[in-house]
Amino acid sequence: MHERDVQGAGSTETAADYGAVVDRARMQLEERVAASPLDVDAWFNLGIFSRDRGDLGRADACFHHVLALRPDHSLASVELGLICRKRGDLETAAAWYRRALEADPSSVNAHFNLGNWARDTERYAQAEAEYGCVLQAQPEHYGAWVNSGYVFEQQVRYVEALRCYTRALSLRPHHAGSYVNIGNLMKEMNDVAGARVAYNAALALDPESPEAHHSLALALLASGEYVSGWKEYEWRLRCSDTGGRIGVRVFPQPLWDGGSLEGKTIYVYGEQGMGDQIQFVRFLPELRRRGAKVVFGCYEHLLGLFARFKAANTLVDVNGGRIPPFDTYLALMSLPHRLGIQASNLPFATVYLDADPARSARWRWIRETPGLSVGLVWASNTNNRHARLKSLSVEDLEPLLAAPEITFYSLQLTDAGEPAQSEKIMTLGRDIGTMEETAAIIDNLDLLISVDTSIAHLAGAMGKEVWTLLPFAADWRWPRTGEVTSWYPSMRLFRQTHLQSWTEPIREIAVALQQKEKHRA
């Protein structure tokens, strides 16, 4: 981020008055550069004005004109980098920041923005160095402390991250975001109680902070406080950092407020990941029981799977599918709040998804193979921001793979969409890339062992035995302690006892596998 402090007094000007002021200012700046075409400051100020008004094309031309007049103008190079960043051209942006540093090696703006580029491209060591240069020159640079904290957090260097966030808080003690950063870090450290204290402190400063409310919601849900947690969770729809991931939809029809649905059609749109949609689709039948016709928008890859559930009258692709007329609508993960869901009344706590019999029959040879047939998923989708904490390597699984009477099958895909390879694990080919085919494979397994992924949710929704590996600070949906979850009775949870160490849960699974093998014999 490129932070600026903006302070202004209140104004009684109308929108028309303000527009006139802006037009006059633009005219004056344009007149100045026309009258003095060699005035570097005039061109730079016009560039800043144009950038702030959203006219990036004019701003780009002005800053280039500045550099034509003064090639060593470092601030103009930084501004051109920021324009490239806004356009999504990160590499060209970095080149401009480097040019700025060539002109002025001490430029705080250049170091800070080059650090942001390194952070955004996951070059964390370089980001750390660039922010260090900023803080050496300006020890009270709030943005550098915050971003350094983020960089340390991404590297799971939590003590250093906490030091940076705490320093940032000392610089802006009345800034709610500083408390949210500390709360999120404490949650990553599995201190949910401490995180809640931080979020409440943020809300005391800014009661309307969507980020603070959303983060508090996750902490409440993780604590099993579903009633208050679901209510707070509604704030996710207003968070700037989750809007793209959630895919918020806005329609002219009213949002469903929990009132009567008799004789009405409700459109429910799926959000977030495939695992979220698999977990929360269980709530749709309740809408039909209340007299509604249900139109459900889900990911295209889930259409076939959900069609067998018959939870909705109509299924559409949430990304571009034609939506039939409806009276009211809601995001899928808002249903628990509207329905008053608690841990004690979760619907479909047994089985609600199944495999297509014809597809399952094609994989029957797995079931007929002597010994236990065990599926493996060891890595989360890298698009998930917590993938680094949720994933294992194949080497981590070695203590499991030595069992002679067990055949292991890979349901793991690489980022390229190809089945992951291992000499001790049988790959099942390209067909595992579809959810319907994956369900058919799971239907023929004795057991699935998986990290926290959509495939673990799928097995749980099918009522198939699944052992789920959880990181030290598990996602909100899993209970903080114990091996069972009310979401999926067929699921058993195995947890890290130390941050980033899978040794203990893998050892526990190895013992459990031996017991399962003996019981089968």
Mean pLDDT metric: 88
* Residue windows where pLDDT falls under 50 for at least 5 positions: 1-15
Strand line-up of the largest beta sheet = 7-6-5-8-9-10
The beta-strand count equals 10
Inertia-based shape: globular
CATH homologous superfamily caption of the domain at 357-520: Glycogen Phosphorylase B
CATH architecture of the domain at 357-520: 3-Layer(aba) Sandwich
Largest sheet: 6 strands, parallel
Using only C-alpha atoms, the radius of gyration works out to 27 Å
From the N-terminal CA to the C-terminal CA, the straight-line distance is 60 Å
Oligomeric state of the chains? Answer: single chain
The number of distinct helices, counting runs of at least 4 residues, comes to: 25
Strand content: 5-15%
What helical percentage do the residues reach? 40-55%
**Helix/strand structural class:** alpha/beta
**Which fold name fills CATH's third level, the topology of the domain at 357-520?**
Rossmann fold
